[in-house]
Write a structure and sequence with these properties.
The complex is a heterodimer of chains A (about 325) and B (about 260).
Chain A: H1 6-26, H2 28-31, E1 48-53, H3 60-67, H4 70-73, E2 77-82, H5 86-94, E3 100-104, H6 105-113, E4 119-127, E5 133-137, E6 153-156, H7 162-173, E7 182-185, H8 191-196, E8 202-206, H9 209-216, E9 220-224, E10 234-241, H10 242-247, H11 249-266, H12 269-272, H13 275-279, H14 284-289, E11 294-295, H15 301-304, H16 306-313, H17 323-326
Parallel strand pairs in A: 1-2, 1-3, 6-7, 6-8
Antiparallel strand pairs in A: 3-10, 4-10, 4-11, 5-8, 5-9
Helix pairs in contact in A: 3-11
Chain B: H1 2-23, H2 35-46, H3 49-82, H4 84-97, H5 106-113, H6 117-141, H7 145-153, H8 158-196, H9 202-213, H10 216-244, H11 250-254
Helix pairs in contact in B: 2-10, 3-4, 3-6, 3-8, 3-9, 5-6, 6-8, 7-8, 8-9, 8-10, 9-10
Classes of the chains: A alpha/beta (about 325), B mainly alpha (about 260).
Main location (chain B): membrane
InterPro entries (chain B): MetI-like, MetI-like_sf
Membrane topology (chain B): Multi-pass membrane protein
Chain lengths: ~325, ~260
């Protein structure tokens, strides 16, 4: 019976504490947190930005701006934080955890109209083009044309999202009653399989799941929502809280300039494709065939006003939102 | 060695069954990729710099969390285990706090300590404290009273009895608690990354791979890496246990 001598125990404890301290100080960068440096530099008020994102293809310009040093040239260090979903990214921004975030426009204008938050639009991100946002039918369902959608089971990414709005608007444009539709909230990632297994009659699908659902599930296109009244519809953009924008005007301008450069560069598809496997985990093969959205950087109030107008028409909000007052004018370069 | 061999045979059998099931087409292959595909991705990932940074971020957070949990739980356990009135006074609070699922505290943790690595470390510490704490308390109940009385009769004071008798005889129990906590802390770090999102970490990698393009092969490969980290840490602690506490029978009870 010889328990550990006390000296060894003390040594062990001392070693652990030392190791912990060393890891704690040296590991900050490796832990993945941005250095807790709140200050700015000669160019901007806040040099280290936490920007919320999602692993979707329209965020390619943001990643491009980080990789190619467009932010660095403006004096910014940007850490992109992928949130679990758009709503939580927006909440983290309202709560002040993220400085700027990507979000689709529906929750942005909903928060603004309901007085949940005062938001400012820093930059536009992407708008719809044909073959990117489509209502697809299960190969075994009877849905083949827009009018067949009435009263069916349709999967959307969630209630009160831009996908629900686009499906309703597309059905209305085609003169179909959406009142009796059974909405099934489902993650985009599960839609190809739901269509294949006939768990739903139709689904509103975006890329890359559009390509995957056609390829693997034999899903059939019914309506391309990005035609007619929803053509070139702005889908999402980058926002910050009004407080952050008021306190950091130079930082916002620097962010806008970097995004301008990145979006101009992103018009060339070959610049974006190699990034998709990295941040959105889309395999190379799929990345080479998916249809990309139209990338924009400058927010235009006339174009963006279409979203709150649609939202009001379909009962998402009960008063108008003045988009022009939410947009931060881009720097005159 | 036969034990290792048996283990390997069992593993090979499992992988073979999985491969056959996956290739049989009962479920589509992209939802349950066969192990051959997953292992290929696994090897590719180990050569991928971005993934290695994710791995380091998670392992570091886990190590820091476990260290903090030990530093909190061992002294607290010694205190609660040796002072009866403190123990009975805190019992209600502890029994209330212990069953709260740590991941449910994510929103609260974000408000209190901010987003970033602090969130996952805080939650992992919260979850990892309990096994160590309870093992330490129970260990003190198990002390041979004859040893304590002997030390007392030599005129040792309370503190000295604590260091020379109580702590060494409690050590095997404490280490068993640490082994349980290591697994709990790893689960918490990865699931917090997965649920709260983040800039880097194994959980964030799995989140992006599943929501970004439904890449189940990458999801399973990432999960495999987390499993290997957990397995290795447990093996290492078991080795420490065998080396240091050859005289104790606790490890046989803990399995």
């Amino acid at each position: 019976m010889s328990p550990l001598p006390r000296r060894d125990l003390l040594k062990l404890a001392g070693g652990m504490i030392t190791a912990g301290a060393v890891m704690g100080t040296g590991g900050c960068g490796l832990l993945g947190g941005s250095e807790a440096q709140q200050g700015g530099n000669a160019q901007v008020e806040k040099a280290n930005l936490r920007v919320g994102g999602l692993p979707t293809s329209e965020l390619a310009p943001l990643h491009l701006a980080v990789q190619n040093g467009h932010f660095q040239r403006e004096g910014l260090t940007v850490e992109i934080i992928n949130a679990a979903d758009g709503a939580s990214a927006l909440n983290s921004t309202i709560g002040g955890d993220y400085d700027i975030t990507f979000s689709s426009y529906v929750p942005i204008f909903a928060a603004q109209a309901h007085g949940v938050a005062q938001l400012k639009i820093v930059a536009d991100c992407a708008s719809s083009v044909p073959n990117t946002c489509m209502i697809m039918a299960s190969p075994n369902s009877s849905v083949r044309r827009p009018k067949d959608l009435a009263g069916k089971k349709i999967a959307i990414s969630g209630a009160g999202t831009i996908s629900e709005l686009m499906v309703k608007a597309a059905m209305k444009a085609n003169g179909v009653d959406y009142g009796k539709v059974q909405w099934v909230p489902l993650g985009f990632v599960n839609m190809p399989n739901a269509l294949r297994a006939s768990q739903v009659d139709a689904a509103f699908v975006v890329e890359p799941f559009l390509t995957l659902s056609a390829r693997d599930a034999g899903a059939i296109p019914v309506v391309d929502t990005a035609t007619g009244p929803l053509e070139d519809l702005p889908l999402g953009g980058y926002v910050s809280s009004a407080k952050f924008a008021d306190e950091n005007p130079k930082t916002i301008s620097a962010f806008q300039r970097a995004m301008d450069t990145a979006v101009a560069e992103a018009q060339d598809r070959s610049k974006i494709e190699p990034l998709l496997p990295q941040f959105a985990k889309i395999d190379k093969e799929t990345a080479s065939i998916i249809t990309l959205l139209k990338m924009n950087s400058r927010a235009d109030s006339t174009r963006l006003q279409r979203i709150p107008r649609l939202m009001r028409e379909f009962g998402y909000i009960d008063k108008d939102v003045d988009v022009a007052s939410m947009i931060i004018a881009p720097p005159q370069s | 060695m036969t034990r290792t061999l048996r283990g390997l045979i069992g593993l090979a059998g499992f992988l073979l069954a999985w491969e056959v099931f996956s290739r049989s087409g009962i479920v589509p292959q992209q939802y349950l990729p066969p192990p051959s595909t997953v292992l290929t991705r696994f090897v590719e990932l180990l050569g991928d710099r971005a993934f290695l940074l994710d791995l380091i971020a998670s392992v570091l957070a886990w190590a820091i969390a476990l260290g903090i949990a030990i530093a909190i739980a061992v002294p607290a356990g010694l205190l609660l285990g040796s002072v009866p009135w403190i123990r009975s006074g805190t019992r209600a609070i502890i029994e209330f706090l212990r069953p709260i699922p740590s991941v449910a505290l994510i929103p609260l943790a974000i408000v209190l300590v901010g987003a970033g690595p602090e969130t996952k470390i805080t939650l992992a510490v919260y979850a990892a404290v309990w096994p160590i704490l309870f093992n330490t308390i129970y260990a003190l109940d198990e002390i041979d009273p004859v040893m304590v009385d002997t030390a007392r009769s030599f005129g040792f004071g309370r503190g000295r009895v604590m260091c020379t008798v109580a702590l060494p005889s409690a050590a095997p129990f404490v280490l068993t608690g640490i082994r349980m906590s290591a697994a709990v802390a790893l689960i918490l770090v990865v699931s917090t990354e997965f649920l709260a999102g983040g800039g880097s970490g194994l959980g964030s990698f799995v989140l992006d791979a599943s929501t970004g393009a439904g890449r189940m092969d990458l999801v399973l490969a990432g999960t495999l890496v987390a499993g290997i980290v957990g397995y290795l840490s447990n093996e290492a602690l078991e080795l420490v246990h065998k080396r240091a506490f050859r005289w104790s029978a606790v490890d046989r009870e803990a399995g």
